[in-house]
Amino acid sequence: MKYAFSRLFSGDDHMREIAAGSAAALTMKLIAAGLGFVFYVAVARLVGADGAGRFSLCLILGNFASLFGRLGLDNTLLRYTASSAADGDWGAARRVCREGLGLSFAASAAASLFLIATAPLWADGVFHDPGMTGMIRWMTLFIIPSAMYMLTAQLLKGLKAIGQAVAVQSVWHPFFALLLAPVFAPFWGVTGVIIAYSLAAACAWLAGYVIWRRRLPEVNAEASAEINRTELLSSSLPLFWGSLLRMAIQWTPPLLLGAFAAKADVGVFSAAYRAAFLPGFILIAVNSIAAPKFAELYRLGRMEDLGRVARKSTALCAVCGAPILFAFLAAPGWIMSWFGPDFIRGGLAFAILAVGQFIGAATGPVDFVLVMCGREKLYRNYMLATALTCAAVGYGLISHFGVMGAAWTATIVITAQNIGSISLVRWKLGIWTLPWWR
Predict the structure, then answer these.
(1) Would you tell me which of 27, 60, 279, 319 could form a disulfide with 357, CB atoms 3.0–4.6 Å apart?
(2) What is the CA radius of gyration of the chain?
(3) How far is CA 197 from CA 151, 192, 438, in A?
């Protein structure tokens, strides 16, 4: 292991920068992952596999609605705020915040009303459980504060308050949810968990807003340039579709499982997926630092350096992810037993998902190479094809094999997606991103 790391970082300032930044980002992400994992263990213990399945399905709908509420503004607000801060134009920073959050609030409210109106269709027509109608409607409390704290985190990133931004984006919500769930769940079951989760999102939003106000200099200045909502939307909407397709790929297996299997099966799969995602956090941490580096090297026309950094980033993800995979495969049933005795049967599904997550990490930040090198439309079109493939494969496997079908669907799709992305990068950019096979 020590030799592998020395080979990765020797004589390469780019990789040392990525490694240092990734370590800091990964530390915060691991804290968030730990809190999220403990929260889901608490939910499983409080309401059982069946209740955890119902909560997971409601959360999927809430996350989709929150994504619609954000309108793809995440990276747009980050870019505009960073530009305003660099110019010292604090009036423009305030205007970006006001316009962006105002747009998101209105869109989130509309998404909430839509989910309230369509709750019976989801509960009875899709999940075949009319009793979930009320739960889905309670989940609408989560939509507005979720969109607000996610966008506030992006505003903080624009001010270079990275640590505080990551805390708002990833840490505070599961922290407050973990505190509140044991208070509400004993009285109202799954509905109590949903209420606790929604209140936790509101707490994260409040914390983010307070930090934003404190970080923004108190100066009375108007924006030097007009910033209107049309301008923000013209930048954000193309990014929205890519985010929507990625989320659709992630949540298609549990949604199909909710349509074809018992809610307890959804709970078992969701627990297994959450537990197996740890290698994915390594890739997220590396992506957060490597993506700007890819854009910088591409802009300078240094394609050879870009390819080398991409290959070493991939190797870094693989080296860090391999020990986690081995640990997961050594005792999958024991890890699933943390959620409760009803979840032990998901051990094999957990092992399959762990392999899929490791493949995703071990093929590296290949999607970000496409996006950072100006191939956004190609990436969007490929994600659309992947989403359709996921739906087709999932329908065939999950309708016949339940939890195991969902696990195989997720693993097959993530493997196919990354192999396809590697091929696209090679075809369009002439870069090979796998360090061990050139």
Answers:
(1) 279
(2) 22
(3) 18, 9, 47
